[in-house]
Structure formats: C-alpha cells, structure tokens
Amino acid sequence: MDYWLEERQRLEQELGERITLDALTGPNGLDREPWRDDAGGEAGWLIAQRKKGHRHSADDVLTAWYALQVSPKVSEHLDLGTGIGTVGLLTLWGMGPEARLTCVEAQEISYRLLQSNLDANGLRHRVDCSHGDLRDLVLEKKFPLITGSPPYFPTSAGVVPQDSQKAHARFELRGDVSDYAKAAVKHLAPGGWFVLCFPSPQKQRALDGIAAAGLAVVKLRDVIPRETLPALFTLFACRHRDEVDKPMLVEEPLIVREESGRLTASMAAVRRGFGFSDGIAHGGH
To answer: Where are the annotated coiled coils located (predicted)?
Structure first.
C-alpha cells in the first residue's frame, strides 16, 4: 500500500489535483494475481482516478462482466479506448493470472493514469498499451475477445465539458460506436467476441454501426439503474456476421438497485464475481 500512496503523491504533484485510490477488484476468487498489502495479506487491484475527472462506473463494471459471461477463458484480449484501464483490467482479472491485455487510448491524461494503474498494480508485464487513436489501430494479431465502452453522445447532444478527459469520455470527439465496431472487426479472430455498451435510448445507432462494420449482435441485455426507472445502457455481445445464423437474443434486463437503493441480488453477484465478498465495492482513499 505504501507504493500506491507514493504513486498518488507523484500524480497529485504532477497533475496539480486530487487523486483518489479506489478498489477495482477485491481479494477473493481463485486463479487471481492480487498484489499484497504491507501486512502480507492479499488485497485487490486499485485504480487511481482524478477526484474531479471522469470516473469509472457501473457501465465499465458490467461491460467487463458481460465479456466474461459470453467469452470462454482466453489467453489475451484487446480493449479499445481503454481510458484509465477499467474495463480492460477487470476483464484481465477475470481471465486469470496467465492472461494478457492489449489496449489503446488516445486521451493524454487518461493514458497517464493508465500507466500508474499498470505499474502500481504490478501489471506492466501483462499489458501491452499504446497511446493512439483506435481508428488508426493496425495490429498484426487478432484477438478472441475485444471489449469497448464508446463515448455515448454526438457533440450536438449537449454541452461538451471544458475538462478534456470528461469531454472525450462522454462525447464523440474521436469517432463513435461505428468506429469502435470497425476497429473491432479488423482485429477479431474467427469465433471471437466483441462486447460493448451503449445508451439504451440510442440502441439503434449501436445496432446500425455494428451491422455496417460486418458484425452481428448475438445477444444484448439492457441495464436498469434502479427499479421503476427505464433502461440506462445496453450490453451487446457480437461476432462476425457470417458466424451468426440465429436471431438476436434479447435477455432479461439486469437491474442494478432496488427501489430502496440497495443493490439487487443480481448486481451483488456481479460484484462478488470481481472479488468483493459482500458484493459491494469499497470506496476510495
């Protein structure tokens, strides 16, 4: 933990702002590679985030969870527009200690935080990361699993934040969902899966972009943030179009919280799957 505290101090001095350390995974589960705390006990992976920047949330967690649900164990996977690393690292954790991650991120401050999150978690040897635009990505290898969490909104949909990290995470300043699908189809191995999330009210945009790239949605699942509310975003599991011969399966929605605000049993199970024994992620430091 001392190393993490030192890394946070370095980041705060470099960036001139508050950085929080938040639990990305818990210590529980078999075939994991957690770092050890100062007392010699096992701990989970942490993630450094800007206190007032773009922060990871349920869509990242559930995109990784859905990828782990639909894909068999793989030795390596690709994460597009990885940001500070949330989806990619959660999927990596779920794939076990021998798995490797390749990822690409264009936004400078997110890429900088990604470096700290790899180094301080001791994951540098398992991750190949590049600083660049996913639309320009050309890798020699293909991957059995690709994940992505595209920005949700065209610039015409609202006021673009002045904060660069928030702006690029939320608005389509470097491509849209169709560009993620195009990058995915270029790098997806035969029989592989491309898993992503996108806002439920814009579901048709995602379906159109996925189809235009030459992929087909095998199944999708809406996510409802709280009982009585409409779906907020949708999880998509896609394959090469010529590998799909059945109609798209629409699964039952996943509800995150009960009307009282308590996590549903389904969401608590998701959290347990990432190592939190009580099903709840613990706060930052």
So the answer is: none
Token digits for 264?
């549903």
Question: Distance between CA atoms of 59 and 111, rounded to whole angstroms?
Answer: 19
Distance CA 43, CA 1 (A): 9
The token pair at 159 is 């006021």
DSSP 10-63: HHHHHHTS-EEEEESS-S-SSS----B-TTS-B---EEEEETTS----HHHHHH
Name the CATH superfamily, with its identifier, for domain 55-267: Vaccinia Virus protein VP39 (3.40.50.150)
User: 210 by DSSP, 3-state: which?
Assistant: helix
Rounded to two decimals, what is the model's pTM? Answer: 0.92
Provide the residue-wise pLDDT of the chain in tens; the chain has 285 residues: 788 999 999 999 999 999 999 999 998 543 344 444 433 335 689 999 999 999 989 999 999 999 999 999 999 999 999 999 999 999 999 999 999 999 999 999 999 999 999 999 999 999 999 999 999 999 999 999 999 999 999 888 889 999 999 999 899 989 999 999 999 999 999 999 999 999 999 999 999 999 999 999 999 999 999 999 999 999 999 999 999 999 999 999 999 999 999 999 999 999 999 999 765 544 455
d(CA 184, CA 240): 10
d(CA 251, CA 132): 35
Q: Across the chain, how many H-helices and E-strands are there? A: 8, 11
Residues in contact with 51: Cβ distance below 8 Å, sequence separation at least 6, in sequence order: 17, 18, 19, 20
Label residue 159 exposed, middle or buried (CB < 10 Å: 0-12, 13-18, 19+): exposed
Residue 214 CB neighbour total at 10 angstroms: 15
